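note to self — DONT lose this again. spent like an hour looking for the file last time. sequence + predicted structure for the chain T wanted, 284 res
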Amino acid sequence: RTDPRSAPRKMKEMPEPQESQARPSWMSSGVCTECRCSRLRRTRRNILLLAAAIAVLAATRTALSSPALVPSGLPFRVGMCQTVVERDKHASLAHVHAAVEAAASRGAELIVFGEMLTCPYDLHKFRDYGERLPLEGAHPSAEDAPTAKLLFDLAREHGVWIVGGSLPEVANELVFNTCLVFSPDGGIVARHRKAHLFDVDVPETQGRQTASFRESEVISAGNKATLVDLPWCRMGVGICYDMRFPEYASTLRKHGAKLLVYPAAFSMATGPPHWSVLARGRAV
């Protein structure tokens, strides 16, 4: 595209938790401006240095949280694609390809897929279907990351933004449930790892058997809140069970998100009664 608004914007991420902190507190977010005054020499020079440091930290906080840094209010078209997931990954990839072609032909500028778009939602299959994603700035390969490579190619071909649902990411022998965001030049501008893992026991009711699910037995949790600057607004990204936690959505909104995207594959036991309620709640 020649429209300068389609240029990729730098992803905004919450600061990494310190080693002494087990989890972020949206766990908690923001830039700490606490001064350890007891460690400062009470001299004019150090007072001036402290004032300068506080000014820099204040500017950093403004840069992270100010919604005015990105365009807002411009109209854009979103294509939401729900595709069939096959046991044959090549068949699933073909469905994804067709969905992008259809959405782009109808004018979609941002295309969003669901959770585990090319992998059956089976804990025992995640590692088998897992993909090894490239380092920042590198391009995905068809051998190591066929889903990421297809989305990379389609974003470039059609000049669209793609929220690639999620896929099982294998990294240092760990498995993450990871959502990639692609810019119109194919660049991976965000990588969100599902932070809240679905460990639940669903009690038996009339017409429904007891169900138990333990994502943490296979998947490792992410620890970042992910923000992406689109040409139209700032977008916050979560995955499925992340939606149940209002603190996470509040953190994204606090830092300027005008659009919240949660690729999901809710179960039929909890999805029908909960999904639309949660979506409306986060919007409010």
